[in-house]
Design a protein that fits this description.
Layout: E1 8-14, E2 47-51, H1 59-63, E3 66-68, E4 88-92, E5 96-99, E6 105-109, E7 115-119, H2 128-131, E8 150-157, E9 163-166, H3 173-180, E10 198-204, E11 207-213, H4 228-232, E12 240-246, H5 256-269, E13 283-288, H6 293-308, E14 312-315, H7 324-341, E15 363-366, E16 374-377, H8 379-387, H9 393-406, H10 408-414, E17 422-425, E18 428-431, H11 461-473, H12 477-481
Parallel strand pairs: 1-3, 2-4, 9-11, 9-12, 12-13, 13-14, 16-17
Antiparallel strand pairs: 1-8, 2-7, 5-6, 5-8, 10-11, 15-16, 17-18
């Protein structure tokens, strides 16, 4: 059974999660209070897309669309860091375009070895050895690892060919590529014999170029009719387009001039996803099947009119090989000219854009769903929330210190926040309680605790909810419970 050709696939990727840090204290005989020695968690593995010249289809992604990289390991005592998660390498064909589900181009993968990080692994959490400071000499907590990135991407294969054969079904494109190269496409006399692109390598003197034979084009193809979009996707990279015209067709209403006009109409209506304009690509017209006497007469009749349009016209026969040598060298000249006009590719440059010194990296806005609430957005606060173990009071206190040093508390105060105001960062909502100013030593307490979280004198959430109801309705539950006296 022949393998299927798949040129579009939707994949669901998940990078590895980072490992948690370790909270450990060194213990050794005759050496009390050895200090924290918890190691860091390992980073999660990335998901990479790598161009492999030995891969020619997206078939594997069609049957196995879900992929996940390895998770990082948890840190251990004695300053032992966890192992990093295994990176997942996924091999794709040359010419693969990576898009979002909305159709936005994320990456254009061309050239063997080209690598794209499709999903970034989560960073491992710091162990308590890395969190120790003068104010917190033996932290009783460690940071959690960050979850890996999860993405849904669309892969589309757009053939990398110098010459694209354009024509109606059964115009002889497959026969032409089979005699010009070593390609062996399926050839028959019924429409849409070619269901998948076929690539062939053509040699003309010292010039070597590739030729693509793709599914036949019919009117309405630019709107998705027939195999239109599947066809047009594979000619976006071509340096030249060759109109293969069947001069021996017996279909009513078909003639070489109308075929060329119909093909040009569909090409003009198609907008390449990679940019550019197909109308500017060089054109060559091949009048095929002139081994048939009637076809040869028709080709001689229409050739002057096509040349008057500025098109290079060649009369060929794949059966008798007539005119193929001239066509091959003419295509080689067109390809060489196109290549010489292209800018010299420059190696990719790594551009570093550091943030400004005064850029705090977060914003504070009012919460539309919570009266008196606020939402803090920013990569650093949201990352710190993901790293915090909220079951450990000392870890929560450390989070408060970090937010304070970043300036979140000052920003909340400027926006009118009061003690007890609900503040949402990421997926966590908590009641804001101003902490000690940044730079002041942390309160001494037992490992895993924070005295600032032990004060419960403030009113509870249920009491605040009841107060809001009274302000809204003007009646308390006690008033509702008083029995009314008998009527007069």
């Amino acid at each position: 059974m022949a393998s299927r050709f798949v040129d579009r696939a939707v994949i669901h990727l998940a990078a590895g999660d980072g490992g948690n840090g370790c909270a450990s204290v060194h213990r050794e005989k005759f050496k009390p209070l050895g200090g924290p020695d918890g190691g860091n968690g390992g980073n999660g593995g990335d998901v990479l897309l790598i161009v492999d010249p030995n891969v020619h289809t997206l078939l594997d992604f069609h049957f196995r669309p879900h992929a996940r990289a390895g998770n990082g390991k948890m840190g251990q005592g004695s300053n032992r860091s966890g192992a990093a998660g295994d990176t997942l390498e996924m091999h794709v064909p040359d010419g693969t375009v990576v898009l979002t589900e909305d159709g936005e181009v994320v990456a254009d993968l061309t050239g063997p070895g080209t690598t794209f990080v499709a999903a970034q692994g989560g960073r491992g959490g710091l162990g308590n050895a890395a969190l120790a400071s003068k104010a917190r000499r033996a932290p009783g907590f460690a940071l959690l690892g960050e979850p890996g990135e999860a993405r849904d991407l669309v892969l589309e294969l757009k053939s990398v060919a110098d010459v694209g054969l354009v024509g109606f079904p059964s115009a002889g494109k497959s026969s032409l590529i089979s005699v010009l190269s070593a390609a062996k496409p399926k050839i028959a006399d019924y429409p849409f014999t070619t269901l998948v692109p076929n690539l062939g390598v053509v040699t003309a003197g010292e010039t070597v170029f590739t030729m693509a034979d793709v599914p036949g084009l019919i009117p309405g193809a630019s709107d998705g009719k027939g195999l239109g979009l599947d066809f047009l996707r594979h000619i976006e990279r071509c340096a030249a387009l060759v109109h293969v015209i069947d001069c021996a067709t017996y279909e009513p209403g078909r003639d070489p001039l109308s075929d060329v006009d119909a093909l040009e109409e569909e090409l003009s209506r198609y907008t390449p996803g990679l940019g550019g304009d197909l109308a500017k690509r060089p054109r060559v017209v091949v009048l095929n099947k002139i081994d048939v006497p009637e076809a040869a007469e028709l080709a001689e009749l229409v050739k002057p009119e096509l040349e008057a349009r500025g098109l290079a016209v060649f009369e060929v026969s794949t059966a008798s090989r007539k005119g193929l040598r001239e066509l091959t060298f003419a295509l080689a000249a067109v390809v060489e000219k196109y290549r010489s006009e292209q800018p010299v590719p420059e190696p990719a440059k790594v551009v570093l854009r550091p943030l400004a010194v005064d850029d705090t990296g977060f914003t504070v806005s009012a919460d539309p769903d919570e009266e008196g609430g606020f939402i803090v957005r920013g990569p650093r606060p949201e990352r710190w929330i993901r790293q915090t173990n909220f079951g450990n009071d000392e870890a929560v206190g450390y989070l408060g210190d970090r937010l304070n040093r970043l300036g979140v508390e000052d920003a909340l105060a400027r926006h009118g926040a009061r003690p007890g105001s609900p503040v949402t960062i990421g997926d966590v909502t908590f009641e804001w309680e101003p902490s000690t100013p940044a730079g002041v030593a942390a309160h001494l307490s037992g490992r895993g605790t924070d005295v600032r979280l032990e004060d419960t004198s403030r009113i509870s959430a249920s009491e605040r909810k009841e107060a809001r109801r009274i302000r809204r309705d003007g009646v308390s539950e006690e008033d509702d419970s008083v029995d009314e006296g008998p009527g007069e």
